[in-house]
Design brief:
The protein is α/β, with parallel strands linked by helices and 328 residues long. Helices cover 47% and strands 14% of the residues. It has a nine-stranded parallel beta sheet with strand order 4-3-11-10-9-8-7-6-5. A two-stranded antiparallel ribbon has the order 1-2. Helix 1 runs antiparallel to helix 10. The protein is globular. The structure holds flavin mononucleotide. Flavin mononucleotide binds next to loops.
């Protein structure tokens, strides 16, 4: 799949997730086969651009191309400024968020709330596309609620406004994360536009990725929650799409090494204090489903230093590897 000048190495993409898809996680997923990884959303409110958090979100040093940055907001002129600001700071693709269900975002008429006002949608898209030379992409839900589902109309507005790729999370805002993702709506959108369409929602296995690609006709799939603690899901899906075969699960030793590398990158990116805290949720996700995982999570969440955190993680996965060897 191509977005503007960027030919993606894979049509399996990491979804933007606030608090999760920071540079270390994006880079890891890209190394493990994600064709693209969209950054956490950056507010269009310029008053926030100087904050440490927003500056860190805009830090792309060393990141594998293409670098896609998501922006959110409801004012066309502010969104255009945000797009310019991020393009000037290294974004190669600007992604507009009209999919976020968070109250904090929707209450200011941004994120998925924008889907209720198609005139404003067009205004924002045209304003952002006109403001930057880099490709602009859009992420939406299927509508605000089931009675006002308008993804097909929004998709056509997007195409006419010069949007170069559309990602759709197959749920309305009102559906939050409940129910099955609506792949029929994604298929209808794909059939009604010429721009590339990315299907998103509930893809957690290689088989499901293939099913969703076949069923919707979408050009790519986007993976969110299923990549948490399982960044190798990208290589698993790539392999399955290429060969029809499942790769074996990574060994405990490989998981240990992937996680230790991930942690070291988190510490380097955030520093010790924030790095240790950011690492906790990732460590929990990686340890999910493993024997003694609950006790380990409880213990590892108490430690405050890099040395202790690394030590406990190493010990947990070494022990797991030994148990698996004994059982084999
Ligand atoms: C923790 C978390 C944070 C998210 N943050 C964003 C965000 O900043 N922007 C956005 O467009 N979507 C965001 N999403 C939605 C995801 O990009 C994705 O659309 C959704 O999780 C459905 O995909 P999945 O079923 O593969 O998880 C977030 C989801 C999660 C779980």
């Amino acid at each position: 799949m191509k977005i503007g000048p960027y030919q993606l190495g894979s049509n399996v993409i990491l979804a933007p997730m606030a608090g999760v898809t920071d540079r270390p996680f994006r880079q890891l997923c890209k190394h493990l086969g994600a064709g693209m990884a969209v950054s956490e959303m950056v507010s269009s409110n310029s008053l926030l651009w100087g904050s440490a958090k927003t500056k860190r979100r805009a830090d792309h040093r060393g990141e594998i191309e293409p670098r896609s940055v998501q922006i959110a907001g409801a004012d066309p002129a502010m969104m255009a400024d945000a797009a310019r600001h991020n393009a000037d700071n290294g974004a190669q693709i600007i992604d507009i968020n009209m999919g976020c269900p968070a109250k904090k975002v929707c209450n200011v008429m941004a994120g998925s709330a924008l889907l209720k006002d198609e005139t404003l949608v067009a205004g924002i898209l045209e304003s952002v596309v006109g403001a930057v030379d880099v490709p602009v992409t859009l992420k939406i839900r299927t509508g605000w609620d089931k009675s006002t589902r308008n993804a097909e109309r929004v998709a056509r507005i997007a195409q006419e406004s010069g949007i170069q790729c559309l990602a759709i999370h197959g749920r309305t805002r009102a559906c939050a994360y409940t129910g099955e993702a609506e792949y029929d709506t994604i298929a209808a959108v794909k059939a009604s536009v010429r721009i590339p369409v990315v299907a998103n929602g509930d893809v957690a296995t290689p088989e499901k990725a293939k099913y969703v690609l076949d069923y919707t006709g979408a050009d790519a799939v986007m993976i969110g929650r299923a990549a948490q603690g399982r960044p190798w899901i990208f290589r698993e899906i790539n392999h399955f799409l290429r060969t029809g075969q499942r790769l074996p699960e990574p060994s405990a030793k490989e998981v240990r090494d992937i996680l230790l590398g991930h942690l070291n990158n988190l510490y380097a990116f955030y520093g010790e204090y924030t790095g240790v805290r950011m690492a906790r949720k990732h460590i929990s996700w990686y340890s999910k489903g493993h024997a003694h995982g609950a006790a380990f999570r409880h213990a590892v969440n108490q430690v405050e230093t890099v040395a202790d955190q690394l030590d406990m993680v190493r010990h947990f996965f070494d022990h797991l590897a030994e148990e698996k060897e004994l059982a084999a």
